[in-house]
Specification:
Elements (H helix, E strand, L loop, with lengths): L21 E2 L13 H11 L2 H11 L27 E2 L7 H13 L2
Parallel strand pairs: 1-2
Length: about 110
């Protein structure tokens, strides 16, 4: 795996094409076979505490969708939710998954 110099992160530009692109949703789930369901619920609740959630979105530079956390954010997100207007969620892409992964890797590594 290629390692990145975090001191150069400020040299990276982030953008969403006006034409749109792929949109994604981060999820947390608890498997029905989980042995520590109560602990999992506690963790998910912790993540959604306003001050904790604000730290996460500040670090990731995501728009804050947790209303209570907005007053604790300190960094401008890389994009606004309105920038996703032309983006779409991808359903199961089946056999095209390998092609998507290849293209993402080329973009990420800069080949």
């Amino acid at each position: 795996m290629r390692e990145y110099d975090s001191t150069k992160l400020s040299e990276i530009e982030f953008f969403i094409p006006k034409e749109g692109g792929s949109a994604y949703i981060d999820n947390m789930v608890i498997l029905k076979e989980a042995k520590n369901k109560d602990l999992a619920h506690t963790f998910i609740n912790y993540i959604h505490e306003a001050k904790v959630y604000a730290k996460i979105v500040d670090y990731l530079r995501y728009p804050c969708i947790n209303v209570a956390a907005k007053k604790f954010t300190t960094k401008k997100p890389n994009y606004e939710l309105s920038d996703l207007a032309n983006s779409e969620l991808k359903n199961d892409i089946g056999e095209s998954l390998e092609l998507y992964n290849k293209i993402r890797q080329e973009i990420r590594v800069g080949r």
